[in-house]
Specification:
repeat; binds adenosine-5'-diphosphate; 11 strands; Rossmann fold; 260 residues; 25% strand; ATP binding; single chain
């Protein structure tokens, strides 16, 4: 049972307000190694804000964050990276005009003993990491702007795992992709899972993520409606959680669940 292991991430009773708006209100979520947890809810439910607190982009007003069972202080994105937390945003942070290897090492280039760029080592490592994620990828010499959305996505993910991400946050990863590319991202996620990486998959569309997820958390108005294993609930039941805030018998209700 995963419950007996130490979670990779626990966010407990997290709250943040912007002006008078409680964007996130006493939300608790967790994630285990090798697990895919989907964070679902309508636009404005508070998903991105909650996850940006984990990524160090926002500072919480209250609540606690534990990584591998220990309380941590995440003040900025650099702190988050130190805990192995990497974020793949919807707007992929890839440099369009350079190739995959250059993207993997952007700002962290490998150098030879003479101080020049070690292109050979960087390309070899790029081939190794990309090969693990996406064995069919061949376009190492092309600028990233020539790649498909799915291939760009794999470059962004390779960059994260190259620097030892243990916790990957993907915020609406398939929002800009076609069906074939979405399937490709699904394959990437399975690969990462097999490597023991924990993944938060954020989406406003249950159909994008339900089949990939081991568990789902549903948010509404900044609160957690409930959580469930995807084997214990149907898609329609999760839709009921998203739309009405109503928890089915197979789910564990959170503070945002409506009674009855
Ligand atoms: N930087 C911000 N300043 C003010 N309000 C914000 C900010 N970020 C998010 N919000 C508000 O917080 C709420 C939750 O937004 P968000 O986390 O983006 O939702 P989701 O990702 O679920 O669509 C919304 O009401 C949104 O307008
Ligand atoms: Mg969002």
């Amino acid at each position: 049972m995963t419950e007996q292991r130490t979670p990779l991430v626990e966010m407990k009773d997290i709250s943040i307000a912007f002006g008078g708006i409680h964007a996130v209100d006493q939300a608790s979520i967790d994630l285990y190694p090798g697990e895919v947890v989907a964070l679902l809810g309508h636009n404005g439910a508070g998903k991105s804000t909650l996850i940006k607190i984990l990524a160090g982009a926002y500072k919480r007003d209250s609540g606690e964050i534990l990584i591998n069972g220990e309380t941590v202080e995440i003040r900025n994105p650099r702190d988050a990276k130190q805990y192995g937390i990497e974020t793949i945003y919807q707007t992929l942070a890839v440099a369009d005009n350079v190739d995959a290897a250059a993207n993997l090492y952007l700002g962290r280039e490998l150098r030879t003993a003479w101080g020049t760029l070690d292109d050979v080592a960087m390309e070899a490592k790029a081939r190794e990491v990309m090969g693990r994620l996406n064995p069919n990828f061949r376009r190492f010499k092309e600028p990233v702007k020539a790649l498909s959305g799915g291939q760009r996505q794999s470059v962004a993910i390779a960059r994260a795992i190259l620097f030892d991400a243990r916790i990957l946050i993907m915020d609406e990863p398939t929002a800009a992709l076609g069906p074939q590319e979405t399937a490709q991202v699904g394959e990437l996620i399975k690969q990462l899972k097999a490597e023991g990486i924990g993944i938060f998959l954020i989406s406003h569309d249950i159909h994008d993520v339900f089949d990939l997820a081991d568990r789902v958390f549903v948010m509404k108005n900044g609160q957690v409606v409930g959580q469930a294993r995807t084997t214990d609930v149907t898609k329609d039941e999760v839709l009921g959680m998203i739309i009405m805030g109503k928890c089915p018998p197979g789910a564990t209700p959170g503070p945002g669940a409506i009674a009855g």
